[in-house]
Structures are given as structure tokens and as C-alpha cells.
Write a structure and sequence with these properties.
This protein has 700 residues and is α/β, with parallel strands linked by helices. It folds into four domains: 9-77, Peptidase S8 propeptide/proteinase inhibitor I9 (Alpha-Beta Plaits), CATH 3.30.70; 89-304 and 437-553, Rossmann fold (3-Layer(aba) Sandwich); 305-431, 3-Layer(bba) Sandwich (Glucose Oxidase, domain 1), CATH 3.50.30; 601-698, Immunoglobulin-like (Sandwich). The strands form eight sheets. The chain has a seven-stranded parallel beta sheet with strand order 7-10-6-12-14-15-23, with helices on both faces. The radius of gyration is 27 Å and the shape is globular. Belongs to the peptidase S8 family.
Length: 700
């Protein structure tokens, strides 16, 4: 350590230095120095089931020393990821009575999230048989948690052992997010579900007969990378079929520095598709945070139901705002503008109180009134000052509704004229005629690491989704909210991800031997086209289009890929053998024969990045596998806008048997002045239309 230090300073130094994730390509037998660290008292966790690595507390000096040991391919900090937080399935054309197979009950979806509320009616195992024989997992039972034949496994992870006051040391969900996503993917049918009367109807998951395996990785302060990798390690070995992960970072990370990308690669190697949320930091470009080519990246779009809240003034004029308000006022109340009620004794003036910021309002002026605020807040400050409700002006996007602890629609200037009275009404459902469109918060492409791979891959419902909720918390989880409910309405790519996970599980139930890439290809090439009028970011908002699970079961052709294809891609991107082994976990080596271009990765979309005013030509090589009619002929149909020239060779593919493969090349010339242009390639045999987007854009 250099200098003598007190135990407190030494422990503090360890805490501040970092908790590190160390991934090794060699075994401990081959690497005795690394093994010394495994035996260290600072070892927090060792990954041994599906890949090789461990977590330890180290100083920066120890980190540098360990990084230089033979066989250690990477050492990186244990950061934290964040959660990407009824009507939807029917809206997708995926009704309860859709054709299903008996093997759906053998499908296991691994939910990596905040845990689960096992008592929810959505997780009843009534009518379920014993767990599938392939299941190798466990249930970490406790005094407050047990599994059943629906929730067949449950684990929780907290490598550093630090829990908050609201955290529950078991797979039980104290936040609600994991319960919501699990029931969206695989919840049983529950009739009469609603959020205090809103969105009333039957709640169900996409594959209600499937089993759920719970891996609790997220707590009050986020989702540690060490725990994400530990959950991947276990889920792969336990025998899950699909991994659903509605979690991501705020910033993009290289594939070799991202626990989710690393875990997803290992799941792909073992035949398991990982479905990821794209992120909630849109609509700016290149904000997507889950974009590895071996996982499915899912954007969030609207359904044809939205919630609005109305304010009725004393003169009978009615104003409408966007929110989910479960409260009902019994009378009219005076309205006051926050800017007219500053807490001057506390040192605030109207420049603060207009925004209804904490402690900025004069209680004597706002008590018993509805407060109008110039900014979107939680409403907590106004209510703390005695207000009976808040009406807020939102300068941002209004294409999704939020739930508040208190009454909240949106206000206009006329509301403060002549000291009016008003009543805030309970929210109502209205039809959204523009649906589906990708919501503003959904993170956009292009892919920030590999610009010539289109991301997101597709979009699914993620706005105003009703699903099961924890009863260990309130509707919002905020102080003062006393509403404890079995079902809640929330929005996010966290909600769209389990829709895609369920669709993947549905395909898996029909095609149990299909690879992760085959399932992903089926979902992408059958996705419904989206309107560019309501989706101005085009493919960088919705990828291949809106998910269609029914069509995806019979795609006709698939673009398949496996570990070797992705290794070839990574080598071609210039990654070293050392970096490659961090992802693969084996002795893979980059060489002249393993050095493919990004345009040769057998991906179900085609993307070209270019510079403004520069014409570029790219040649894509693809191989398709026949999974439709044994004897069939597909013709290439191109839809190409000005600025793109496309040639497909051969333009006709004839198949004589199922499983037969055919290779084609597509030469694309692109001249883009600004923004994005796109077209499509469709392989059509008269029955199946296998559609892939062609995208060209000016990169920054």
C-alpha cells in the first residue's frame, strides 16, 4: 500500500478505488497468479457456470498489476445499469385464442429485473403441470418467498451486500418493475384487472402458459454489472430459453466493456436469445444503449389507447392534458399560479415559485387551492405546501402519460384569469388514431459503436401498459402515495422489451431448434412497416418495423448466424484476440480467415453510413435458409428511393427442400446529402414476404 494507513482509511480506499470485474480466458490451473486473487479475502463473486471470471475489491495499483497477468483479458469497474421503465397484445393482432402449441408450457423465460411479487394472480400456477425436466435452476426460498409451477425458479444477487431501507433480501419485488415485465411476458390470464378503474379488462402475458425464472439484479440504487453477469451465468446454466432484460446504461459502451453485451454473447453461444430494451433517452440520435448484434434491441411505440385528464373551469370551459390521474375531486377549488405565491420569507421569489420547486411556495397562499406550475415536476412541493392538486405546463413531449402522486393535468394561461375555480377530473381513455408510432422517449439509432448495423432492431408496445405490480410499494413509490394496487400502468422500453421476449418465446415454442439469430430474423423480416409521417426518425426509431408475432412463426426465409459469424465480424472490426476472448470466453483467435467486414455479417437489415455529398458503394453478402415451403421460388422486389441504387444477384432464389441455403449479394450505391434515406428488399414467393430495410445515412 506504500504508506501505513488506518483501517478506516484503508477500507475507504478500497471502496473508492473500485470493485472490479475481471474476466479471464485461462483456467486457474493455467493462471496461478490470477488464482491467488480468486482466493483473496477481497473476492466478492466468481463466475464458473457459463463463463470464466470473478469480482474483487482492488486498489488501482492492484488493478494495474492484475491486468498484466497472462490470461487476464480485461479488468473493468463494477458500474450500475438502470431500469428502462391488456390492450397491447390485441392491438398487435395477437389475441388470446391465437394458435398455440402444447410445448409453450415447456418454454422458460429468464427475467433479469427487480424480482417478482409471487402472490399476484398473474403468476397463479392453476392448471400447470410440473416444471419442465430440462430445468436445472433453484428457488431461493425464504420466510417471505416461495416458487410454484408458474414461477419455477428465483434467485437474487447483491455482490457488495449493500441494501437500502426499502430493499427486500429475497427474490421478492419491492419496486414493481420486475413484476410488471414478467407479467407482460408470461402472466396468466386475469379478468377484471385495472389501475383503480383505468384500463379495465383482461390482463395477460404474450405466452401465458410459459414458465418464469426470476433473477433479481436491480435494487433501489440500480443494477450492478457484477450482478448482471452473475445472473447471466446462472440463467444460462439453469436452462432458460429466452432472457428478457429491461435494463441499460445512460451511455453507450463498447461491447467489451458492457456486462449486458458480454452476457448476451454467452447466452447466444448457448442457444438463448437475449431481448433488450433500447433505452429511454430519446429522441436524440445515437442514444440507444443496448445494441450488440447478437441481441434483440427493442424500441417502444404506442398502442391505440391513451389517457387524458381534463380540467373543468367554473365557466364550464374544459382543458385537456396528458397524465394518468386516478383521483376524483368532489368539488371545485380556487386556482393560483405558482409565480404569484412565492415563499418570500424563505428567500424565494416568483422566478422559483413559478416552477413549484421545493419550499418555494407560500403555504398560506396555496393551501386548499389548485396550483399552476410552469414546469413538469412530481407535484410533491405543491402538495407539501397544502395544495389540493397541481396543473403543470410541460415544455417537452406529450406522447406518453405519467402517473403522479397527486392530481396532475396540463395548464394554459387562461386558467389564471379572473380568479377562476376548477375541478381536476379522473383520467379517461381515448382512442389514439395515430398509433402505432415510436414514442419520443424511446432511444434512437444509429448504432453508436458499429454504425453500419441498424439499431434498434424493431419496436413493440411500450406506452401506457397495464400489468401486475408489487404490493410492497405504492403506484409511484413516492413518499405520500398511499395507493397500493395489484396492477399498474407504466411506460418505457422496459415495457416493450417483454413484449418482444414473449414473441420470441412464442416462436421458440413452434421451432425449438431455431437459433437466437433465426428467431430474431423471423421477428425482423415479418415486422409491419411504420409510417414515416409519424416516425420522422424512420428506421432509427423503429428498426425493421412493428413486431407481429403471428407472422413471425412462418417467416419463409431466415438470416441465420452463430458464434463463428459474430467472431468473424468482431475480428473484422479491428478487435484484438485478447479483446475477442473477453466476449467469447474461449481461445478464439483473429486471423486472416477470420476477418469479415460488417457488411458480410448475416444480418436481416442493410445499413450504410456515409459522408454528406459522398457517393459510396457497399457489397453485402447474405445467406438465407428456407423454412417455408419445401419447393419454392422467391423473387427479389426492391423499393428504392432517389439517392440509392441497388442490385441483387441472383434476383431469383429457387429452393427444393426445407433447410436449404442460398447466398446472394446486394450492391448498394448511396449518395446522401443529409439525414436518412431508406428503401427495402423483399423476397417474395407469393405466400411469404421476407422484408429487410435498406438504410443509408450521413454519419457525424
Amino acid at each position: 500500500m506504500g504508506n501505513m494507513a488506518s483501517p478506516l482509511s484503508w477500507l475507504l480506499l478500497i471502496t473508492l478505488s473500485c470493485t472490479l470485474l475481471i474476466c479471464c480466458s485461462a483456467t486457474s490451473e493455467e493462471d496461478p497468479k490470477a488464482d491467488n486473487y480468486r482466493a483473496s479475502e477481497y473476492l466478492l463473486h466468481s463466475y464458473q457456470r457459463s463463463f470464466n471470471g470473478f469480482v474483487a475489491k482492488l486498489t488501482m495499483e492492484e488493478k494495474k498489476k492484475l491486468s498484466g497477468i497472462e490470461g487476464v483479458v480485461s479488468v473493468f469497474p463494477n458500474g450500475k445499469k438502470q431500469l428502462h421503465t391488456t390492450r397491447s397484445w390485441d392491438f398487435m393482432g395477437f389475441p388470446q385464442k391465437v394458435k398455440r402449441t402444447p410445448t409453450e408450457s415447456d418454454i422458460i423465460i429468464g427475467m433479469l429485473d427487480t424480482g417478482i411479487w409471487p402472490e399476484s394472480a398473474s403468476f397463479s400456477d392453476e392448471g400447470f403441470g410440473p416444471q419442465p425436466s430440462k430445468w436445472k435452476g433453484t428457488c431461493q426460498t425464504s420466510s417471505n418467498f416461495t416458487c410454484n409451477n408458474k414461477i419455477i425458479g428465483a434467485r437474487y444477487y447483491r455482490t457488495d451486500g449493500k441494501l437500502g431501507p426499502t430493499d427486500i433480501k429475497s427474490p421478492r419485488d419491492s419496486l414493481g418493475h420486475g413484476t410488471h415485465t414478467a407479467s407482460t411476458a408470461a402472466g396468466s390470464l386475469v379478468r377484471g384487472a385495472s389501475l383503480l378503474g383505468l384500463a379495465s379488462g383482461a390482463a395477460r402475458g404474450g405466452v401465458p402458459s410459459a414458465r418464469i425464472a426470476v433473477y433479481k439484479i436491480c435494487w433501489h440504487d440500480g443494477c450492478p454489472d457484477a450482478d448482471i453477469l452473475a445472473a447471466f451465468d446462472d440463467a444460462i446454466a439453469d436452462g432458460v430459453d429466452i432472457i428478457s432484460l429491461s435494463v441499460g446504461g445512460y451511455d453507450p459502451y463498447d461491447y467489451f466493456e458492457d456486462s449486458i453485451a458480454i452476457g448476451a454473447f454467452h447466452s447466444m453461444k448457448n442457444g438463448i436469445l437475449t431481448s433488450n430494451s433500447a433505452g429511454n433517452t430519446g429522441p436524440d440520435p445515437a442514444t440507444i444503449t443496448n445494441f450488440s448484434p447478437w441481441s434483440l434491441s427493442v424500441a417502444a411505440s404506442t398502442i391505440d389507447r391513451k389517457f387524458v385528464t381534463k380540467v373543468k373551469l367554473g365557466n364550464n370551459k374544459v382543458y385537456e392534458g396528458v397524465s394518468v390521474n386516478t383521483f376524483e375531486m368532489d368539488d371545485m377549488y380556487p386556482i393560483i399560479y405558482g409565480g404569484d405565491a412565492p415563499n418570500t420569507t424563505g428567500g424565494y421569489d416568483s422566478s422559483y415559485s413559478r416552477y413549484c420547486s421545493e419550499d418555494s411556495l407560500d403555504k398560506s397562499l396555496v393551501d386548499g387551492k389548485i396550483v399552476l406550475c410552469d414546469w413538469l415536476t412530481s407535484g410533491k412541493a405543491a402538495i407539501a405546501a397544502g395544495a389540493v392538486g397541481t396543473v403543470m405546463q410541460d415544455g417537452g413531449y406529450s406522447d406518453s402519460a405519467y402517473i403522479y402522486t397527486y392530481r396532475h393535468p396540463t395548464w394554459t394561461q387562461e386558467m389564471v384569469a379572473n380568479k377562476p375555480m376548477a375541478i381536476i377530473q379522473k383520467s379517461v381513455e381515448v382512442k389514439d388514431e395515430l398509433a402505432p408510432f415510436v414514442v419520443s422517449f424511446s432511444s434512437r439509432g444509429p448504432n453508436p459503436i458499429t454504425s453500419d448495423i441498424l439499431k434498434p432492431d424493431l419496436t413493440a408496445p411500450g406506452v401506457d401498459i397495464l400489468a401486475a405490480w408489487t404490493e410492497a410499494s405504492s403506484v409511484t413509490g413516492k413518499e405520500g402515495d398511499t395507493r397500493v394496487v395489484p396492477y399498474n400502468i407504466i411506460s418505457g422500453t422496459s415495457m416493450s422489451c417483454p413484449h418482444a421476449s414473449a414473441a420470441a418465446a412464442y416462436i421458440k415454442s413452434f421451432h425449438p431448434t431455431w437459433s437466437p439469430a433465426a428467431i430474431k430474423s423471423a421477428l425482423m423480416t415479418t415486422a409491419a412497416r411504420m409510417s414515416v409521417k409519424t416516425n420522422t426518425d424512420m428506421e432509427f426509431a423503429y428498426g425493421a418495423g412493428h413486431i407481429d408475432p403471428v407472422k413471425a412463426v412462418h417467416p419463409g426465409l431466415i438470416y441465420d448466424a452463430g458464434e463463428a459469424n459474430y467472431v468473424n465480424f468482431l475480428c473484422g472490426q479491428g478487435y484484438s484476440t485478447k479483446h475477442l476472448r473477453l466476449i467469447t470466453g474461449d481461445k478464439s483467435t483473429c486471423s486472416a480467415t477470420m476477418n469479415g467486414t460488417v457488411w458480410d455479417l448475416n444480418y436481416p437489415s442493410f445499413t450504410i453510413s456515409t459522408k454528406s455529398g459522398v457517393t459510396v458503394t457497399r457489397i453485402f453478402t447474405r445467406t438465407v435458409t428456407n423454412v417455408g415451403s419445401a419447393v419454392s421460388t422467391y423473387k427479389a422486389i426492391l423499393a428504392v428511393p432517389s439517392g440509392l441504387s441497388v442490385k441483387v444477384e441472383p434476383s431469383v432464389l429457387s429452393f427444393k427442400s426445407l433447410g436449404q441455403k442460398k447466398t446472394f449479394t446486394m450492391t448498394v450505391g448511396a449518395a446522401v446529402d443529409k439525414g436518412v434515406i431508406s428503401g427495402s428488399l423483399v423476397w417474395d414467393d407469393g405466400i411469404h414476404q421476407v422484408r429487410s430495410p435498406i438504410v443509408a445515412f450521413v454519419s457525424s
